[in-house]
Amino acid sequence: MEQFFLYIVRVSIYLAVFALAYKMLLSRKINPEFNRYYLLFSGIGAALLGFFTGFTFTFSGNTVPNPVVDLPEIVVYANSGYIETTSFLANGLREIEIIQVLILLSGLVVLTIVFVQLIKIMLLINQNPGSRFMGLTLVEIDNNTPPFSFFHWLFAAKELTNQQDFAKILAHEHAHYKRLHSFDVLVFELLHVLFWFHPAYYYLRNELKTMHEFEADAMALKIFDKKDYQQTLLSLSFSGGMIPISNPFNVSLIKKRMLMMNQNKRHKPAQNWLKLLIILPFMTAAILIQSCSFDKKEVQTEPRPEDVMSVKVDSAGSVTASMVNPKEAFADAEPIEGDIFTVVEEMPVFQGGPEAMMKFISNNIQYPEKARKEGIQGRVYVNFIIEKDGSVSSAKVLRGIGGGCDEEALRVVEMMPDWTPGKQRGQAVRVSFNLPVKFLLD
Asked: Are 193 and 340 in the same domain?
């Protein structure tokens, strides 16, 4: 799930960059064909670039917080003969997982809508007669739906097919077919499944559909007189619903289309390629943004009380779970030297997993006799780093309580065997952990 979320973040960055570059450089002086290819590449390119994790660039600084991974709290009892540990994930999904689930569920709804649209088109094809004309299959339908095309199928009301102006509509929709505009629409509908929340996606999609209309108008004007064609657009007033996945004969863009038809259509290819070169810095910035890691100071975070579960392990190895509500906060840590990743794709793992770590600590930690006699209890916070080779290093007490408890907690951490190291983009990295150990008198 984490890899999926990182992919969504990367593609979202690329979509935003492509949309910004288009708005700044290509949206004013329009070359429909060139702009269409750029917009189509923006969708496909962003989706493909999302699989590219980039290079690792490390920047130093101590003003940006770096989260430290909080391990479950270990509770050591003085007399009961057992320890307990807490899991910060016991109360269900964390916020980041909830976001991922929402994206997937909403995407499933969007995908269902797309399938419903496809089914509607297939039903229209099966339920109505069709005839071949100019490479298109003309499907005459009974309702008042505006004419639209989907690949080589052209759908139009029977009353409209008998009108003189239908030849102009036919030429327009035939242009959609020849230019494979339905392919573009399908690509962006697939993107819609995962990026329904992204404003840049909707901007790029709407601009792409506008370019489709401009291209179709330009091809129709090669056959018909411009004034007659424009008069047809003005005289047509349709009602009824359209199928979004199709290429409808769109009357809502008439003003833009009229202005485009009246523009000087001479485009200079050199200017277009120059604009693409100007876009390269935008792309470089996007790759750098999603590829950076930072060397930063640690910032401690406290688990939410409702997310904490107590798991008791007695000497016989039986496990009992119950909810607890810790109230004490973590102490601030000292700066850690070296590269520490904000997001680690593969977290370090104690050999055998969390249960094995729990047993290791249970078998080795003792309640200090001095603390027992002096009635000392409380939390000791130990910070340590799992190195690239999996070894434990830089173990230190962030906050102690005395009575030998600090030394005991530190001793057990330093005794830990090597972990399976964490990885970022396939390379082992250093990861910092906090281990709270609570010494509690019965």
From this structure: no
The CB density around residue 11, as the number of other CB atoms within 10 Å, is 24
Note whether 37 and 69 are same-domain residues.
no
Both tokens assigned to 98:
């909830």
Residue 296, phi then psi, degrees to nearest 5: -140, 170
| pTM exceeds 0.70 for this model | no
For residues 263 and 320, state if they share a domain: no
Position of tokens 């009357």? 251
Query: Of 184-193, 322-331, 428-437, where does mean pLDDT reach its minimum?
Result: 322-331
Q: What are phi and psi of 383, to 5 degrees?
A: -110, 140
- What is the rounded distance in angstroms from the CA atom of residue 36 to the CA atom of residue 117? 24
Burial state string for 65-78 with b = 16 or more CB within 10 A and e = fewer than 16: ebebebbbbbbbbb
Q: What is the per-residue DSSP string for 374-413?
A: HT--EEEEEEEEE-TTS-EEEEEEEE---TTHHHHHHHHH
Tell me the per-residue pLDDT of 378-414, one tens digit each, with 9 for 90 and over. 999 999 999 999 999 999 999 999 999 999 999 999 9
- Give the residue numbers spanning the domain of 281: 2-54+98-289
Determine the Cα angle at 91 with ends 88 and 94, to 5°: 70
State whether 407 and 320 are in the same domain.
yes
Q: Could you write out the DSSP letters of every residue in 178-205?
A: HTTHHHHHHHHHHHHHH-TT-HHHHHHH
Q: Are 321 and 309 in contact (CB under 8 A)?
A: yes
User: Which of 239, 267, 289 is the C-terminal boundary of a domain?
Assistant: 289
What is the domain count for the chain? 2
- Pairwise CA distance, residues 238 & 340, whole Å: 60
Residues 258 and 308 in one domain: no
Q: Which of 240, 264, 289 is the last residue of a domain?
A: 289
| Closest listed residue to residue 384, CA positions, set 418, 354, 358 | 418
Does residue 306 have a pLDDT over 70?
no
The Cα–Cα gap between 22 and 275 comes to: 10
Which tens digits make up the pLDDT trace of 145-172? Answer: 778 899 999 998 887 777 778 889 899 9
Query: 400-410 pLDDT, tens per residue?
Result: 999 999 999 99
